[in-house]
Amino acid sequence: MCVLRSQHIVLRAMNRTRTAISVASGVTSGSGNTLDAPYIRTIEWDMMDKAKFFPLSMLSSFSVRCCLFPLTVIKTQLQVQYKSDVYKGMFDCAYKIYRSEGISGLYRGFWISSVQIVSGVFYISTYEGVRHILNDIGAGHRVKALIAGGCASLVGQTIIVPFDVISQHAMVLGMAVHAGAKSDLNPLGIKTGPGRSRLNISIDIAKEIMQRDGFRGFYRGYTASLMAYVPNSAMWWAFYHLYQDELCRICPPWVSHLLIQCVAGSLGGFTTTILTNPLDIVRARLQVQRLESMRVAFQELWREEKLNCFFKGLSARLVQSAAFSFSIILGYETIKRISVDERYKHQIHPERAKAKKNCNIVYI
Q1: Do the beta carbons of residue 298 and residue 282 sit within 8 Å?
Q2: Tens digit of pLDDT for each residue in 24-42?
Q3: How does pLDDT run across 177-227, given as a tens digit for each residue?
Q4: d(Cα 74, Cα 78) in Å, to the nearest integer?
Q5: Distance between CA 350 and CA 260 in Å, rounded?
Q6: For residue 22, with 0-12 CB atoms within 10 Å meaning exposed, 13-18 middle and 19 or more buried, which class applies?
């Protein structure tokens, strides 16, 4: 009798388990039938229509950069100043630039820097391509994100560094108005004035770099850029997936998954910015102040700032990184949803996000 009762209990437990598995691995259609279609959290490269993805991705990236570029200008000027002799902080910097140059002063070097839209296509293609390769060898989703993020940054920086060098020289030219005759703010001796257009100034910067250093001058600070941005990108994607997993675990089921992704991106940006801030300052100084090497740049930075080097320009970088990460992920994940192949659309429908805690969430 006891044996029969035990078997009955086991059978009931197995039935409950089958029911739970059925609910977790399927979605309910309008007729009440359950379809075997697990909820996909990460839309992979082979699930998307590239003809839709690339143009929308470039448009999204350009829009985000248009809105947030002033933060890049503020961050760069804060990083290259000596201690706090020009600006007292982020708001003081923004106010002084706006007062002396207007809105255009906050967009110094914008059109040169906007070439990053093209490098962004190579960046995201490399990221998704490396993820796809690692997926074939069975790597975990966080490992894929870490390695792919580093590889993507390597490709992106190789393309963008020459334009970044020109752009940063253009960004800091306006600092002389506030700092007086500071020679290190215009080491190339570029002539500026009311009659000179931004295009002419950018061309002069490029010509002067070529005359002084040759083609190698456009890759000044390249090693520092790799040391700053490759770990930054790798860690950002890894932290992005880490925070996303944790937020999905603790957030109520009704919270939008897209919102969770955007918040995870911002948190990832905060974390990587704090960890890599001194490297970014060294990179900026190498490219703008034309210092001899990373060692010299580190020595100069430590001599001027001591422990404050870990916090120099950090507030502007944190605001920029959080806003940029949130906006980029909002655009990136939305565009992936728009570009996804018809075969997978029923598996990423927004309604499924409401039941994500009861779904079999798949990393592919």
Answers
A1: yes
A2: 333 333 444 434 556 676 7
A3: 565 554 466 777 777 776 777 788 888 888 988 998 888 888 887 888 888
A4: 6
A5: 13
A6: exposed
The reported pTM is 0.73
Q: CA-based angle 355:361:362, to the nearest 5?
A: 150
Place of tokens 């565009």: 335
Assigned superfamily of 48-341? Mitochondrial carrier domain (1.50.40.10)
CA dihedral in degrees (234, 240, 243, 247; nearest 10)? -170
What is the tens place of the pLDDT at every residue in 322-343? 888 999 899 988 998 888 888 8
Q: How far apart are CA 295 and CA 62, in angstroms?
A: 35
Instruction: Output the CA–CA distances (angstroms, integers) from residue 199 to 162, 168, 187, 202, 218, in the order listed.
Output: 16, 14, 19, 5, 17
Least Cα distance to 291 among 216, 166, 184 occurs for: 184
Which residue shows structure tokens 């000179």? Answer: 196
Helix residue ranges per DSSP H, the chain = 2-25, 50-80, 90-101, 110-113, 116-136, 141-172, 176-179, 198-213, 222-250, 257-289, 294-305, 314-339, 350-353
CA distances from 78 to 92, 96, 152, 298, 303 (A): 10, 12, 28, 16, 17
CB atoms within 10 A of CB 21: 11
SS3 (DSSP) at 181: coil
261-291: b (≥16 Cβ within 10 Å) or e = bbbbbbbbbbbbbeebbbbbbbbbbbbbbbb
> DSSP letter at 81?
S
- The rounded distance, in Å, linking the Cα atoms of 50 and 332 is 13
State the Cα–Cα distance between residues 114 and 68, nearest whole angstrom: 12
Report d(CA 23, CA 33) in Å as an integer: 11
Q: Over 80: is that where the pLDDT of 79 sits?
A: no
Task: Compute the Cα dihedral for 90, 94, 95, 97 and give only its sign.
Answer: positive
Please report, as a single letter, which amino acid is at residue 139: A
Whether the CB-CB separation of 150 and 233 falls below 8 Å is answered with: yes
